[in-house]
Amino acid sequence: MSNRDADSSAASQPLRLPLGACLAFSTEQPHYCLDPLEQRALGNAGAKRTEQFRLGRAAAAAALAKLGAPAAPVGMLESGAPQWPNNICGAISHTAALGVCVVGWATDFIALGLDLHPLNRPITSTVAARICTHTEQRELQSAANPAWLAQAIFSAKETVFKALHPLYQQFLGFKEAELTWLPEQQRFLASVSKWGLQDLTITVDTTGDALITLLALPRRQKVPHSQ
Predict the structure, then answer these.
(1) DSSP secondary-structure letter at 127?
(2) So what's the pLDDT on residue 71?
């Protein structure tokens, strides 16, 4: 079976994707064969890291195929972010048993961010205090399901970082991104004041036993001071 066939339809696609973006999932089977470039990026990782890396790259291969892009390996930058082929914008995430990837043409998107968070991995009160702003902590205290919302906040902030780091090449602390939860719309609005960003939409949903968050910045959206 070819790498392109190795996808990804093992999970449903819960998110409402922006026009031009393609999403793909991968599970343990069938086994994805890493390209030599991907293998070099992985280095001498242990078995657990290798399997998770493989899940992510299998999802990436499937997403690129859905997009209609030529088959190409996805390496890794020094920052640890995926090294996409020319003209491709994307993001990868994984749990122990599921990989997911979103891609789009760089002519359509400035940035894409994505994160998976296992629902069986709670966010402790200590971690919540470290990642949440005062406003977000107050929102947690009044939430109908604070445990779920804490997981969603953590995942959404990971998504913000994955989307914005390639643009700004700067560290972003958890509390430097502030989220406003809109439960009726199942999404967050994110603001990053140090970069002049406001009202970035992060979609939230679940797939299997994981929570999934997605941020897409279309090319038509103006992003100040990006490189």
Answers:
(1) H
(2) 92
Sheet holding 178-182, edge to edge: 109-118, 210-218, 197-207, 187-192, 178-182
The pLDDT of residue 23 is 96
Q: Are the beta carbons of 150 and 128 closer than 8 angstroms?
A: yes
Distance (Å, rounded) from C-alpha 82 to C-alpha 166? 10
> What does the pLDDT read at residue 160?
97
| pTM of this structure | 0.89
Contacts of 159 (CB under 8 A, 6+ apart): 91, 113, 114, 115, 202, 213, 214, 215
Sorting pLDDT into bands at 50, 70 and 90, what band is 9? very low
Tokens 């999404």, residue located: 187
Nearest Cα residue to 32 out of 9, 11, 16, 53: 53
pLDDT 10s digits, 175-197: 999 999 999 999 999 999 999 99
Q: What's the CA gap between 71 and 2, in Å, rounded?
A: 11
Between CA 4 and CA 63 the distance in angstroms is 9
Domains defined along the chain, listed by start: 3-114 (3.90.470), 116-218 (3.90.470.20)
Contact 112, 217 (CB under 8 A): yes
Q: How far apart are CA 177 and CA 57, in angstroms?
A: 28
